[in-house]
Design a protein that fits this description.
Elements: E1 2-5, E2 14-17, E3 27-37, H1 39-45, E4 62-69, E5 81-84, E6 87-89, H2 95-98, E7 109-110, E8 122-126, E9 131-132, H3 142-145, H4 151-162, E10 167-171, H5 175-186, E11 190-195, H6 200-208, E12 213-216, E13 225-230, H7 237-244, E14 245-253, E15 274-277, H8 283-296, E16 302-306, H9 310-318, E17 325-329
Parallel strand pairs: 10-11, 10-13, 11-12, 13-14, 14-15, 16-17
Antiparallel strand pairs: 1-2, 3-4, 3-8, 3-17, 4-5, 5-9, 6-7
Helix pairs in contact: 4-5, 4-8
Length: about 325
């Protein structure tokens, strides 16, 4: 197999030839059709995530076909299409797992971080944590499905935590926000999109997706928000979003990493406003979201790159040159 490997933090990924891995008990080997490029991958490479397993193959928005099956795997056959997400394995025994909160597991593994991911022609995954993609999803272009495995899933979990309020703000209009905006519009919400200063391209892209207002993150929305989701890894947006939500509103921080949150006056939080974070996902989130995505015809806008161009894709994502999601095609 071929892969783009992170050998040392801060270095470019390196094209590497590796032997195919044999799936162990409960595992499958997946021939990768597409793998999304996530901002979490940038955090990994930049050393902003603690204790990665190095060397490691990044990538956790994987769509592919089952190419080999280990012992004890049920419900999957050779050739089946599956999605492999960020959550790679949980212990099943800690208090969080016992309470059906596996996203908070004390002893998890994560695809493309503590186990090899999908910047490769093949990946081995725990079959219990892969999503079977059947029906229409079995026929759709893989690139259009890959971003659903993290940008979509984390966006969906964040949207649920945001609550049922009608007026929603999205800070940072990238891969996750462009999917959440479509779901929120389908739900009948009023959506405001906030971008970097001067990013008129992202604002125009948001308007293409029928958001109700788009502007700079420092702008006041035209109406008080019931909830805001912060996808940008910028802690300075927390007091900005708190100022934009009405009393009783919620601000959800949806990234795995964020810069330090500056001090802010208590009055921004007062009025029963809430500040929440999203941590990982559960398999139940995945099943729920993928069924919804199929039902409403959710569309991921993608820019596709060859696997060997992974470093260029990461650079484009970091520089804000990607509208929607970047996807690697082996």
């Amino acid at each position: 197999m071929q892969a783009m490997v992170l050998n040392r933090i801060g270095e470019p990924l390196k094209w590497t030839e590796l032997p195919d891995k044999v799936p162990g008990a409960g595992e499958i080997r997946v021939r990768v059709e597409a793998c999304g490029v996530c901002r979490t991958d940038l955090h990994l490479i930049d050393g902003e995530l603690a204790d990665p397993t190095l060397p490691v193959i990044p990538g956790h928005e994987i769509v592919g076909r089952v190419a080999a099956i280990g012992t004890g795997v049920e419900g999957l056959a050779l050739g089946d299409r599956v999605g492999v997400p960020w959550l790679g394995h949980t212990c099943g025994t800690c208090p969080y797992c016992a309470a059906q909160r596996e996203n908070l597991c004390d002893h998890p593994t994560f695809t493309g971080y503590t186990r090899d991911g999908g910047y490769a022609t093949a990946v081995v995954a725990d079959a219990r944590y892969a999503f079977a993609l059947r029906g229409g999803a079995a026929q759709r272009p893989a690139a259009s499905l890959a971003p659903l495995m993290c940008a979509g899933l984390i966006g969906w979990r964040a949207l649920k935590l945001a609550g049922p309020g009608r007026r929603l703000g999205l800070y940072g209009f990238g891969a996750a926000a462009h999917l959440v905006a479509q779901v929120a519009a389908w739900q009948g919400r009023t959506v405001c999109a906030f971008t970097r200063a001067g990013d008129v391209e992202s604002q125009a892209f948001a308007r293409e997706l029928q958001v109700d207002w788009a502007g700079h993150a420092g702008d006041a929305p035209p109406w008080p928000l019931d909830a805001a989701i912060i996808f940008a890894p910028a802690g300075e947006l927390v007091p900005v979003a708190l100022h934009a939500v009405a009393k009783g509103g919620r601000v959800v921080c949806a990234g795995i990493h964020m810069s330090d949150i500056p001090a802010f006056p208590y009055e921004l939080l007062w009025g029963e406003r809430q500040l929440l974070s999203v941590a990982n996902l559960t398999r139940a989130d995945g099943a729920e979201f993928l069924e919804l995505a199929a039902r409403i015809g959710l569309v991921a806008r993608t820019t596709d790159y060859a696997l060997a161009d992974a470093n260029r894709a990461l650079a484009d994502l970091c520089a804000g040159r990607v509208q929607g999601a970047a996807v690697l095609i082996p």
